[in-house]
Amino acid sequence: MSAALGLDGRVAVVTGSGRGLGRAYAIALAAAGAAVVVNDLDEDGARATVQTIADAGGRAVAEIAAVGETEVAEALVGLARSEFGRLDVMCTNAGVLRDRVLWKMSDEDFDLVINTHLRGTFTCARAAAVTMREQGEGGRIIVVGSPAGQRGNFGQTNYAAAKAGIAAFARTWAMELARDAITVNAIVPTAWTAMTASIPAYAPLVERVARGEGLPRAVRQEHAVGFPQDCAGLVVFLASAAAAAITGQCVGIGGDRLSLWSHPAEIAFELREGGWSAEQIAERWTQAFAPAQQSYGIEFAPLDLDAP
């Protein structure tokens, strides 16, 4: 690994790193040289991640807690400082799903997902920003979005709203922390997980993956779905000196695909002196605005799942 990508002497916190994508991020950061605070509500998973890092010669400790509350965020940052002396990277990966269509979603379903994803990202990033500013040596905050937050997704009112908010966090915090040399970026990862395996179109692949045969090229490239370790290189890159000039971005990764997402922007407008009545809007909409209306929802191209 080049010097610009190395993380020797750096300290990272990765929330939700007891399994899946979070575990892949923590292991990759440790392999690049960082000491890692592993966080998860699942104690066995968190301890397993720490052991994997230690077995490879890395340094890691675990904090078993659910993110969301200020006290947990401050405990994570405090553990990084007490065990390793500082904090350089905060990766807010922790998440939970409670999928329901709008008319069946309970208050509890909504609140749990918002508290874990949106509030958990806010409290952890705030605690990290305070410490990084005190240290005066810059830092990296990597928040975790989703295609659902960029496009919307059926049955995911709570999750899509949280992930859209997280993308807005990145753009806002990038401005606020720029003078402190703290970059803030959102990653938009896609990977084969238990949730992905439940998508009906992917049912024929479940046994193939279980046999260790990997995923077809079309899935890895057109759908950007690979395995969690395929997403970890982006986290290492954004945590490194090589990414010092990158901030306020939403960067997608999955399988063989690396992408940069656009920010919301005006795509059509007209001016009318004195403003617009409902009748005037109706008169101009079909010709001036209808052709520019945007698609929505996560779209999957048809795949030949029998292809290599």
Descriptive account of the structure:
The protein is α/β, with parallel strands linked by helices and 308 residues long. The chain has one domain: Rossmann fold (3-Layer(aba) Sandwich), CATH 3.40.50.720. It has eleven helices and eight strands. It has an eight-stranded mixed beta sheet with strand order 3-2-1-4-5-6-7-8, with helices on both faces. Helix 2 (43-55) links the parallel strand 2 (35-40) and strand 3. Helix 1 (20-31) crosses helix 10 and helix 3 runs parallel beside helix 4 (107-135). The chain is globular, with a radius of gyration of 21 Å. The two termini are 31 Å apart. The relative contact order is 0.12. The mean pLDDT is 95.
Key terms:
8 strands; alpha/beta; 308 residues; single chain
CATH architecture: 3-Layer(aba) Sandwich
- Spans of at least 5 consecutive residues with low confidence: none
Major sheet description: 8 strands, mixed
The number of distinct helices, counting runs of at least 4 residues, comes to 11
At the first level of CATH, the class is Alpha Beta
Q: What structural class is derived from the secondary structure elements? A: alpha/beta
What is the CATH superfamily label? NAD(P)-binding Rossmann-like Domain
| Global shape | globular
Kindly summarize this structure in a few lines.
The chain is 43% helix and 14% strand.
